[in-house]
Amino acid sequence: MKHVSILIFIVAVSLASMVAVAQPAPQTGSPFVVFGSDQGDAPVILTGGYRLLGQTSNRSGSFQEKPPDFWRVEFTPSAIIYGVPITANLLLSSEQRDVRQDINAFSISLDPDAVKRIVTQRAYRELESYAMSESGWMLGEYENIKDSLKQYDPQQLEQLEAMRQVEQLRDVSNGNITNYEDVLTKLGVMSDVESVMASLPKIGVGTVFPTFTPLTLSGARIIGGNLEWNPGGVFYLHAVYGTTQRPLSRIDSSRTDTTIYRTSDNSDFGRKLYGGRIGFGSITGEHVTLTGVYTIDDKTSLTIADTLSALTPQKNILSTIDFRVEPIPGIWSLEGEIGGSLTIGDLNSPQFSTSSVPDFLLAAADSNASSYVDWSATASTTVNIRSSGTRFSGTVRRIGAGYRALGVPNLRVDVLRFDVKVDQALMKRQMSIGLFARQDRDNLIPIKRSTSTLLSIGATLGLNFRGLPYLRLSYAPYVQQSDASDTLLQYVNRTTMWNASGGYAYRISDLNASTNITFARQDAATKNNLYDYAVTSVIASQSVTLLIPLSLTAGVGWIHQEAVASPSTTIITIDGSASYILSDVLSASGGLTLALDDTYGDRTGFFLGVTARLGQFADIDLRAERTLFNERLTPRVLGGAYQESIVRLTVSRSW
To answer: Which residue, 22, 215, 313, 638, is most buried by CB atoms nearer than 10 A?
Structure first.
């Protein structure tokens, strides 16, 4: 993989060099290379950033494996050579351990999307300049003046129509320049070379995080490579190959009474992933694509010592077809995806055998005793009418109990969900009203003893009148229930949540101040009232910014909880902080937090921080925290009372 990365890097640099040779030399006196994106345009622009993080603590966090002391290094250098962006990403951490999957990562990419982002920013700046000029008023009067301009000033009309297309690029196409390259070139914000570069494929080698769809590949870390190409928004191709996990042997122990059990369930087989998408249209706009992903474990990469382990080598084959259409561009869109998966739960399970079916058909069908199949589908529609401030969205999602996508970590299966939401802005967007509803249901193929459903509805109201305090209200009840035939397994949980918040920003003489208050209430009623509870909280905060570079904030809160299964408790919280700017390059901050619990104990904490800028080289953030926990009901040996100290240093810079 290292050699492949070097090869891609050489190819990318060679391509950029050929482009550079074809370009005219820069004018006398203009730099050939600039360091930083804010230094203007040049044939070669070096950009990027870095971040160094170090932390030390006197203890590990509760219920986590993160070590008390660790460091991380992130480095993302980028060279833009005549519009060709070549980027590297490096992550190193002391948290790398043999008992878990890799954290360290390195990749090299050729990303034409960076060119598109640069061109889009230029176009938006051009639009802003035009809107603020003497001719800017014509953007809102196009229909009334276009005929006159056509007759008396066609050049002005041509510029106006170009700016209207940039407006459309911003409001309708969400930065997708595929259909706007001609006008961007005419306006001078996109060069011919950049037009060519924007049509090149996106290539990444090393540790990559490609995304296909939420049902096929999303969120997986892959050590390998990917290529994505959508030339002209007409044809689409995306290919991925690599390793999603390395072989990992880990034996964990647990004690039950006097017996010690050992398991390898947290181990991992080596796993390879092959994936591809092919289709037509713009992947960010209207399109139809076919996706396939093949994932397989290397069953020889790991030896499982214990027979009680649930860990088995697996294989997963899935395919989906997805689409997106816009019946009314920028207003109404429809999209959906449907597909199925075949999973071999244990590659070591026996194969089916029958003389009535040819062996090659049995092999093609993966006729393993642990094989299972299922399907999934999603569909959604969105209506967004900016002129009236109306937005509606509706989604249906069905993921079968046997559907598997090994390239989507933590994919929830066995769920049928309906989700509807509508928001309406009124009175020049000073008032907003929202309604939403969701229903979830499981046991889609009746293999469980019961079916559970969740119904959630709610409403929101927002008032933000100019010159008056803002107010936001929300009401959200939901019901969770099971239809188990066994009455002991039945349950009906009803929960209702109210939230209200308000605040006001104002000036007192030369002081800037802000006052905010939040109220929240949650009530839960359970079967036979065995686990009923109620939580009420009121939190108020005040901030003040003085003429001297000093900012002060303070807050006080009251939280009361009542529960049938545990004692009631009241918590008083008090916090305050201050921030002072000592100079243009140095500032300091500090704060104190108190949580006084009349039942379980108290918590006291404070922090001190310093930030500094060292010229163009580094931004430094040093922070020290100290927290004291004094829990009365939990013994000290079980973590009920302890002191925690943390010192964290971050050094970073982007250029």
So the answer is: 215
Residue 308, pLDDT score:
66
User: How many Å apart are CA 8 and CA 204, to the nearest integer?
Assistant: 9
Write down the pLDDT at residue 469. 94
More confident of the two residues 109 and 17: 109
Helices then strands (H, E): number in the chain? 7, 31
Query: Residue 190 is encoded by which pair of tokens?
Result: 């996109």
Instruction: Place 394 in a pLDDT band, splitting at 50, 70 and 90.
Output: very high
pLDDT for 219-248, tens place per residue?
999 999 999 998 878 899 999 999 999 998
Residue, of 386 and 40, whose pLDDT is higher? 386
85: pLDDT strictly greater than 70: yes
Kindly give the pairing relationship between strand 33-35 and strand 44-47: parallel
The full DSSP string for 22-38 is HSPPPPTTS-SEEESGG
Instruction: Tell me the percentage of the chain whose pLDDT exceeds 70.
Output: 88
**Distance between CA 103 and CA 67 in Å, rounded?**
14
Q: CA 327 to CA 332: how far, in whole Å? A: 6
Q: Which of 107, 4, 86 is nearest to 44 (CA)?
A: 86
The span from the first CA to the last CA of the chain, in angstroms, equals 29
Beta partners for residue 272, in sequence order: 243, 296
Round to whole Å and give the CA distance between 156 and 7.
Answer: 50
Q: What single letter denotes the amino acid at residue 547?
A: L
Nearest to 407, CA basis, from 239, 243, 563, 542? 243
605 near 627, Cβ under 8 Å?
yes
Quote the strand ranges of 332-451, DSSP E.
332-344, 371-385, 390-399, 415-426, 431-441
Residue type, 530: L
Q: Which residue has the tokens 């080598």?
A: 313
Strand partners, 441: 416, 453
